[in-house]
Write a structure and sequence with these properties.
20% of the residues lie in helices and 23% in strands. The protein is built from seven helices and 15 strands. A five-stranded antiparallel beta sheet has the order 4-1-2-3-5. A four-stranded mixed beta sheet has the order 6-11-12-13.
Length: 312
């Protein structure tokens, strides 16, 4: 098959035509769903429409347990891709990845799958090769300027959309929907352990990388294990509150196309926060889109990035 040859993937790979973005969490995470996947080495490929940018595009996803990467863009006719998006009707702001429709599937079969023509396949560079983190921060022992410290809410909360908006405005956090001119004055320093940085403004120590995508329940178990192992020498790690996570959002995107300092890994594009949505759902902070959002469902999946309060 020209598709997998072009992308330097196993020739024995196949397309799962029934897989959709909607099914992925249930399939690849611990709580089961459409079909349980047992092997961490197993990979499934499916097409979807990415409508996060200025114009929708047809993409090929490589998915496994706690693994996801877009491996290619497919140059399909623009009218077919837009028609697929229009069929979705009105959707929530955080729903921008759609299953392909019958027309796109037929076009793919005729023009990509059952042909050796590779001209419509655009391989995308894998982000899994490196963490992408750069450390251009002052060291924790370097002299620091006068810093106005800010105490952020540090207890889990139940929040409505209105309360999140109030929180965003209260601390002038950047949010691409709620406060485009927001700018919170972080002062991040390098702790010298390659694992963490500390924001001297808030007194919060942050994990630079993060936790793979998983259910909220499994994420909490993972944090318990980090504490048992004394990650970076400490045993009081936790999920950040909404305010703490929002404090990391920056107006300008870094070189990995995310609204966060480049000292953090780009492999956790959105993270759970210690907040439930009133009247129901989980809150997240999305560094890719630069905003907060909530997702409904019994067990939505997400990434994690832990933090802890340093001693005053």
């Amino acid at each position: 098959m020209g598709l997998f040859k072009k992308l330097d993937l196993a020739i024995a790979s196949t397309i799962d035509w029934e897989m959709t973005p909607e099914y992925t969490f249930g399939t690849f995470e611990s709580w089961g769903g459409k079909e349980r996947v047992r092997s961490k080495a197993e990979r499934i490929y499916y097409f979807f429409v990415d409508n996060w940018g200025d114009s929708p595009k047809l993409c090929l996803m490589e998915r496994g347990i706690k693994h996801a990467r877009v491996v290619a863009e497919i140059l399909a006719p623009e009218d077919l891709v837009r028609n697929c998006v229009e069929k979705q009707g009105k959707v929530a702001l955080f729903e921008r990845s759609f299953a392909i429709d019958k027309a796109l599937q037929e076009w793919l079969m005729d023009n990509v799958i059952e042909t050796d023509d590779e001209s419509k396949i655009v391989p995308l560079k894998s982000d899994a090769v490196e963490s992408g983190m750069s450390m251009n921060l002052p060291h924790k022992d370097d002299p620091t300027p006068d810093i106005k410290k800010t105490k952020l809410p540090d207890e889990p909360m139940e929040l409505s959309e209105e309360e999140v908006a109030q929180l965003t405005n209260q601390f002038n956090f950047f949010d691409s929907d709620l406060n485009t001119q927001g700018k919170f004055p972080n002062y991040l320093v390098d702790n010298g352990d390659d694992l963490t940085v500390t924001d001297l403004t808030t007194g919060i120590m942050w994990q630079r990388e993060g936790i793979d995508i998983m259910s909220h329940r499994m994420l909490c178990k993972e944090i318990d294990q980090l504490n048992a192992d004394q990650f970076a020498g400490y045993s009081d790690w936790r999920l950040p509150t909404m305010a703490e996570a929002l404090s990391l959002l920056e107006q300008e995107k870094n070189d990995r196309d995310q609204h966060i300092a480049s000292c953090f890994s780009f492999q956790q594009p959105f993270v759970f926060v210690a907040a439930f949505r009133s009247p129901g759902g989980y809150w997240f902070v999305d560094f890719k889109q630069g905003r907060s959002y909530w997702a409904s469902g019994t067990n939505p999946g997400g990434f994690g990035r832990v933090c802890r309060k340093i001693e005053s």
